[in-house]
Amino acid sequence: MPGDGRRQDRHAAALRVRAGRGARRRDAGAGGRAQAVRLASGSGVPAHGRPARHLGRPADDRQAGAVGPAGRKEDGTGGRRARGRWHAQPVPRRAVPAPRPADRGGAGTGGQARRGGRRPRLGSRRGGPADRRGADQPQRRRPGPARPARHRRPGAPGDPPRSLVVLAKLVASYSAAADPVRAVSMRAYMRDQFPFLGLATPARRALSREVLAGRPRPAPGELRDIALGCWELPEREYQYFACDLLAGHARRLDPGFLPTVRHLVTTKSWWDTVDTLASRVAGTIVSGYPAAVSTMDSWLVDDNLWLARTAILHQLTYKQDTDSARLFRYCLVRAGHRDFFIRKAIGWALRQYAWTDPAAVRRFVTAHAAELSPLSIREATKNL
Question: Is the pTM of this model over 0.70?
Answer without folding.
Answer: no
